[in-house]
Amino acid sequence: xxxxxxWALGLTVSMLALSTPAAAENAAPAQEAAPKSGxxxxxxxxxxxxxxxxxxxxxxxxxYANGKWAEKTQIPADKSNYGMFTALDDLSKERVKLVLExxxxxxxxKAGDVYASYLDTATVEKKGLKPIQPWLKQVRGxxxxxxxxxxxxxxxxxxxxxxxxxxxxxxxxxxxxxxxQIYQGGTGLPDRDMYLVENDKFEAIRKAYKEYLAKMLTLxxxxxxxxxxxxxxxxxxxxxxxxxxxxxxxxxxxxYNKMTVAELDKITPGLKLSSVLTGVSPKITEVxxxxxxxxxxxxxxxxxxxxAVLKDQxxxxxxxxxxxxxxxSVSDTTFAFYxxxxxxxxxREPRWKRGxxxxxxxxxxxxxKAYAAKYFPPETKAAMDTLVKNVLAAMGxxxxxxxxxxxxTKAKARTKLANFTTKIGYPDRWKDYSKLKIVRGDLFGNDxxxxxxxxxxxxxxxxxxxxxxxxxxxxxxxxxYANFGMNEIVFPAAILxxxxxxxxxxxxxxxxxxxxxxxxxxxxxxxxxxxxxDENGKLSDWWTESDVKAFEAAGKKLIAQYxxxxxxxxxxxxxxxxxxxxIGDLAGLTIAYDAYRASLNGKEPxxxxxxxxxxxxxxxxxxxxxxxxxxANLRQRLxxxxxxxxxxxxxxxxxxxxxxxxxxxxxxxxxxLKPEERVRIW
Length: 682
Known about the structure:
Neutral endopeptidase, domain 2; 4-stranded mixed sheet; 50% helix
């Protein structure tokens, strides 16, 4: 779901090390290895040992580039998938651990106090559920639907989800101001299909989910848990029936529905949302509703549902929200369902890793500031600046050369490109946590107050200037994103490492890796949704009708191409759902190739280890998508992740003429496309 109207690269944390040593629960802080004199991977930045040259590039370019790696790489027991992103994420966690171990001894360090509180398992277990009981008592004490409505703002501030979600973000049609936005909620399973589609896989998930609900109610001290769990599920299934699909929920036009609070009340009979929003902030006078019909349906379900069931659902949601800061009896139960049943992950991460994640979620900028100072050298930023400029220039040339885009649209596209803001490494300004109270030894209290601080910080944006300095990711996050409303592309420090970027690697590898990532994020601003935002980040129609038709025609071809990728006998890639990211991959790689060739100033690159420069470029692309999945994780991604699986992301090369020139695939190859069948957009 588009919460911030921005799109991540979809490296949903998954990267670098080529081996997967198990991390001991109480392992000592890692020590930084001495830097290599040359590229970190192979002789030119690519791990040739991971290739499987017995596979023809024409049949499966992913396995050709990564087959041996995939065969020998085991998924660690605490992961649902493992690849380049996960390995880099592990590296980031190891580095943050070094930072936090030092911070534990610094008096007044909020990060150190949060981390130390999480590692103090004896205190957590001794307190049991006592810390959450005051809140559960409030929930149990609700006597009427009206009282439940009044409780919703408090629940939201505490971080406890209910029937709806809401946050303050830029107004898409007036991006210089903030507005409160509402979106559908009310379900505990990741997707509506898991409630509604009849098949054995989903039926097993539904059965396990009901058991999970019953266990959580039992842990909370409730009786008749099985019957009450069934009642919660029945309500959530009704909510799923009125929820929008992910495809519709990803449409920037369909999800922009602005109305006054009084108008909102008219579409939600049975639930007076105006009083709920007044409890959130009296400044809320207008809202943008993402899925109006779903909000109407959920309001009716609220009116028709017994209060006891709504309270039971909130009790479960409360335990789930705080499960990571409660005893293992709760956190293990939550992980058993959401981690093992849904993702296939056998065991939880070591506690120190969970402590790192919790600390980052609590005082992320404090941690990120220390991380960036230690692990992001100025020369990396300088080199990245050059790469970004080169790829932006390549995109400009692509726009100029388009045959399907009208001259007036090209001019506007050029203006939009010129207005881009690029953020690299870390923010110029950090969040101020001085008003956030952190107490060593009070793990639950710290988490509760952090949720409240984050909520208040978000709501405080109303009526204020746009925070153009603010980042949506931390420096130690292995990812990148495009923010439409800000007209920006953002690259955190942690992704600017091998195999994405290595200053000592062959330029072809860097352009095929981070260069394509840069191109991917640039092109998001011109994809099926990003193209709806103008040079000022405003949702508007600035393309001509013929431009839109040509673009949509190419998009339909790409949808069909990805729809044909059958991952399991009963499950395929959803071409429409993944369209934006597939366009990003296709355009990003195309633009990065142009930038790479331009960087050579007309010279031909040398042949290295038998590979031409163009071959190395495409290998660099394939290498970053190395990833092995557990079946449950991959199945869930097919319905919840707008990115295609890694192998299919590597396969996008089949649309580039230059890939055919580089590898000379035979016409009978499985990936081979006739020239007229290749999808060309940018």
